[in-house]
Amino acid sequence: MRLKTLFSALLAPALLWAPAFAAEVNNTPEEKAMAAADEIITMRSELAREFIKPGAAVDEETFKKVCGAVGKRVKEITEKTGVKIRHAATKNRNPANAADGRERALIEKFEADKSLSEVWEEFESEGKAFKRYTRPIHVEEACLACHGAKESRPEFIKAKYPDDLAYGFKEGGLRGIISVTVPAE
Q1: In angstroms, rounded to a whole number, what is the distance separating the alpha carbons of residues 134 and 127?
Q2: In terms of Cα–Cα distance, which of 111, 36, 115 is closest to 80?
Q3: pTM above 0.85, yes or no
Q4: Alpha-carbon distance 40 to 85, whole Å?
Q5: Could you give the CA distance from residue 35 to residue 42 in angstroms, rounded to a whole number?
Q6: N or C: which end of the chain has fewer CB within 10 A?
Q7: Domain that residue 152 falls in
Q8: Would you give the end-to-end CA distance of the chain in angstroms?
């Protein structure tokens, strides 16, 4: 039984997500964007459920297994496919994930319309056409271990992120957004 648990915890997530990014070959920009967002949101959710149990203490190792693994996969997808994946929040922990003006507007749009599940935008940058696919990220029970009450955040988070704003969430609340930008063609 212990071997099965070890397999589930360490190998199954890698096997589940590594080949899951089917949008790497012969798909439209829209399919690539949707597949990337779905993979990252699903990966974050599954890893959080696997490694963050109710009432358990979260340490840096747990943080690396969840958030670190997601960040690594985002980088892999970006390097392999050229899509740009961005997490953004108004209540951010990492300053690099602070929402800009457009992202703030999208977050407000998702907050105002709880039934809204995605937003597509087209834009130009440096003479090239792009499409951006944005989805909301909702707080799950496991997320509350680090994003719940300010006082209950793990000590390593308080130390590493002294300007942390990513707390005080409730289950089901809007944590932020994930946006995937792809070339329009």
Answers
A1: 22
A2: 36
A3: no
A4: 9
A5: 10
A6: N
A7: 2-183
A8: 49
